[in-house]
Amino acid sequence: MYECGFGDCFRLREASQVDLYVDFGIHSSSWAGKDKIKRFDNVIADMNEKKDFLLTHYHDDHFNGAIYMAATTTHRFKEVYISDVWNMPGSVYVTLLTLLRGIFTKSVILGENTIIDFLENICTRCGRIHFISRGVNFHNGQYIALWPEKNYVARKAQRMFEKLQVEVGKSNLEEIERIANRLNEIVIDLANDNDGISKNYEVQFNELRKEYLAVQKMFDNLHGDNYYNNIQYRLTRFGNEISIVFQNYKADRNVLFTGDFGKKRNWSFIETNQDGLVRMHSWYDVIKIPHHGTDSYYHSFFKRTKVTSEFMVPNGYINQHWNVSSKYNVDSIKKKNSTVCAHNTTCLGPACHRCSCIYPNSYCDI
Ligand SMILES: [Zn+2]
Ligand SMILES: [Zn+2]
Predict the structure, then answer these.
(1) Integer distance in angstroms from the first to the last C-alpha of the chain?
(2) How far is the CA of 236 from the centre of ligand 2 (A)?
(3) Contact (CB, 8 A) for 35 and 75
(4) What is the pLDDT of residues 316-326, one digit of tens each?
(5) More exposed terminus of the chain, fewer Cβ within 10 Å: N or C?
């Protein structure tokens, strides 16, 4: 586990397997400037020649390090696993909502950290894309996904889109829908022919970026700055809801990774194995707590932890509202399990139980 402030980067190592990196990014409000670059450089300096990547979801605190890596070094990820929201009936809506969030958070204007930048950097440079959804077994049979459940995502995306049409105006979404359609086509193409180098994708990505910027300007002209807070919030939550949740496939050391996954109803789908596709393990040795441990994404792992279990909480150096939920502390005191937290100072509050902070190191072996 690397210390990335409010951001995620995990390196999953197994003898005789290629390393799998799970997310690589830092939230801009936790680390910035030189510190951020220094941490990215630390992570990259440790990398082997061969490595694969899993992006839990399309938020830049989970991928801006990967863009930095591709842009400034010769390191590349080979097999790239992404949440499968591209290959189903409602795909274009999911893509549209992801793109729209980029506009409402101003990521497009700030540059270099939109979904288009990620896909361009990762997908057109030697990587092969694999779509991950519930029940899919991946990385040489090592892991299996518990989420996203495609039907749920498709239905939800369509509903959100229809509501947005009313709120933002139908005609104002036409251009972004066109961009979403094209992006979908490119990504599916890349995943199918498994050889992004052969076609001229960079040109296409550049065009899309220009058009995307134009749509951002249009929205800025229409409404100025503060209009979209509520929509932005909903879009961000939706982005988290489509996180890949996964666990080890074979009986071994049980691990659970949760991205920024949330929502009671969806957790209960997973917990009760509603579709009979994947059963959770009855307990885990290591759990990556969802959404940086914040209170509004709290989920109880009480039943699935032991005294020897470790929680990983990638939440360091952030404004107070995003602190680690004290509920994890309450659970852990009862269960006596321990926690590794990311913090570039020692832990200030009582949030993490039996906590070992990564600081002053840049990573911790778990
Ligand atoms: Zn996040
Ligand atoms: Zn997120």
Answers:
(1) 7
(2) 7
(3) no
(4) 866 666 788 88
(5) C
CA of 184 to the centre of ligand 1 (A): 23
Cα 190 to chain center, whole Å?
20
CA 61 to centroid of ligand 1, rounded, Å? 5
The token duo for 250 is: 């074979």
Token pair for 2 = 């690397």
- Nearest ligand to the C-alpha atom of residue 59: 2
Whole-number Å distance, alpha carbon 197 to ligand 1 midpoint, is 30
The pTM (predicted TM-score) of the whole model is 0.94
Whole-angstrom CA distances from 239 to 3, 58, 70, 71, 75 are 23, 7, 23, 25, 27
- What's the mean pLDDT in 28-33? 83
Length of the chain (residues): 366
* 86 phi and psi angles, rounded to 5 deg: -105, -20
**Helical spans, DSSP H, in the chain:** 33-45, 64-72, 91-104, 107-110, 115-123, 150-168, 174-193, 201-223, 229-241, 264-271, 326-335
In the reported structure, the alpha carbon of residue 363 is separated from the centroid of ligand 1 by a whole-number distance in angstroms of: 18
* pLDDT at residue 346 is higher than 60: no
> The tokens of 102 are what?
């980029």
Residue 336: strand, helix, or coil: coil
Answer yes or no: are the C-beta atoms of 80 and 19 closer than 8 Å: no
Ligand nearest to the CA of 23: 1
Count of other CB atoms within 10 angstroms of residue 347: 17
Ligand nearest, relative to CA of residue 57: 2
CB atoms under 10 Å from CB of 298, counted, come to: 18
With a pLDDT cut of 90, the percent of the chain lying above it is 66
Neighbours of ion ligand 1 (CB under 5 A): 61, 260
Q: How confident is the model at residue 55 (pLDDT cuts 50, 70, 90)?
A: very high
Residue 89 vs residues 156, 158, 272: alpha-carbon distances, Å: 12, 10, 26
Spatial contact of 148 and 85, defined as CB atoms under 8 Å apart: yes
Report pLDDT digits (tens) over 133-154.
Answer: 999 999 999 999 999 999 999 9
Please tell me the distance from the alpha carbon of residue 221 to that of residue 170, in angstroms, as a whole number. Answer: 17
d(Cα 113, Cα 32) in Å, to the nearest integer?
14
Cα of 170 from ligand 1 centre, angstroms: 30
- Ligand that lies nearest to the alpha carbon of residue 30, given by its number in the listed order: 1
